[in-house]
Design brief:
- The protein is built from 7 helices and 8 strands.
- By secondary structure, the chain is an alpha/beta fold.
- Strands 1-2-3-4-5-6-7-8 form an 8-stranded parallel sheet.
- Helix 4 links the parallel strand 6 and strand 7.
- Helix 1 runs parallel beside helix 2 and helix 2 crosses helix 3.
- One of its GO terms (molecular function) is hydrolase activity, acting on ester bonds.
- Keywords: Metal-binding.
- Pfam families: TatD_DNase (PF01026).
Amino acid sequence: MVYICGCKRMLMPQDWINVHTHRPGEGVNIVDPCLGNVIMPGQGAVYFSLGIHPMYIDDRVEERLQKIELAAAEGKIVAVGEAGVDRNALAPVEVQLKLFERQAEIAGQYGLPLIVHGVRAIPELITAYKKCRSHQKWIMHGFNNRREILMDLLRHGFYISAGRHAMNEESQVYRVLPEIPADRLLIETDNSDFTIGEVYGQVARRRGIAVEELQHIVRMNFDRLFKL
């Protein structure tokens, strides 16, 4: 269900699509509420994802997993995540991986995309993908890594979401933006102060295309992934 100011509305071709954010704005937003209360936008459509971020693993994991599964079963979320492995997190990597795989199972069971968080853990996440034998699509959110990692993720079927790091022309993702296939590219703002329009503008310039063409590309991928 999509709501704008409390009312349903159809998605429009010109909508900005923000595949992962904690601060919804204009356009179509996939909102992860893991950072607390979400301030609903005055304009814009909002869907929700739900997951257990590796930085926020606590002693309520089982209860939180039940909430994710219930939300998926009741159709209250359109994706699971963000979930993943982060070597900066306090929880041991083995604990993070087990929790990630359980969330991947929920995504697979209910036919939902999985929004993936990975920090210095790409090999582990690819191994988990093979282990899960997931028929669902995994989205590597906030990608900012070298070309070899990009190609490895693409070979395994990942979608790549570019966000705040793309705004830095010295970043790794900025360098590889032209190499992301059009049918695997998504755009996000995450928890940054950038607007979704600013990120689209930067990515479009780097790829040498019009913003309107990028909007069409992302919309096609969004429709393929989320089937809303």
